[in-house]
Amino acid sequence: MGSLRSLRWAAGSYFRLFERDASSSLRLTRNSDLKRINGFCTKPQESPKAPPYTYSHRVPLHKPTHWERKILIWSGRFKKEDEIPETVSFEMLDAAKNKIRVKISYVMIALTVAGCILMVIEGKKAVRRNESLTSLNLEKKARLREEAAMKAKTE
């Protein structure tokens, strides 16, 4: 038990010593012009020069293609193609595309439901005529056998 306690004390003192060294090197980098990296000194960095261009915080604009113009009209963002400005923001274009995606998915859902209802109606009609897949397959096989027999007679 005593050796475990001494081991924990040694580990704690080692980490405290390491923290002290790390914090002193951090203080050096903050307070002086020289940066200390792995024991080497480097020259102080020159102040960054202003870039030759000026960056404005405006939203980047995009010139819409013919297809994107149609999307902007279909989404209801603009009434006519004449109303669409020369450049539009990417956010406006993304919003219009998302709106079209939602509309298309609604149409596909409606077509799927309509198709299911149509198949149920056709199935009920087939039941009334006493048609089933089994009877249709048996009739088709009988027809094929008759055709094969006719072909065998002619040869």
Automatic annotation (TrEMBL):
GO terms for biological process: cellular response to hypoxia; neuron apoptotic process; positive regulation of apoptotic process; positive regulation of release of cytochrome c from mitochondria. It is found in: Membrane. The keyword Transcription regulation does not apply. The chain crosses the membrane at residues 104-121. GO terms for cellular component: cytosol; membrane; mitochondrion. Its main location: membrane. Pfam families: DUF1075. It is a single-pass membrane protein. Keywords: Membrane, Transmembrane, Transmembrane helix. Belongs to the UPF0389 family. Interacts with HSP90AB1; HSP90AB1 is essential for FAM162A mitochondrial localization and pro-apoptotic activity. Interacts with VDAC2; the interaction is probably involved in inducing mitochondrial permeability transition. Proposed to be involved in regulation of apoptosis; the exact mechanism may differ between cell types/tissues. May be involved in hypoxia-induced cell death of transformed cells implicating cytochrome C release and caspase activation (such as CASP9) and inducing mitochondrial permeability transition. May be involved in hypoxia-induced cell death of neuronal cells probably by promoting release of AIFM1 from mitochondria to cytoplasm and its translocation to the nucleus; however, the involvement of caspases has been reported conflictingly. This is Protein FAM162A. The lineage of its organism: Eukaryota, Metazoa, Chordata, Craniata, Vertebrata.
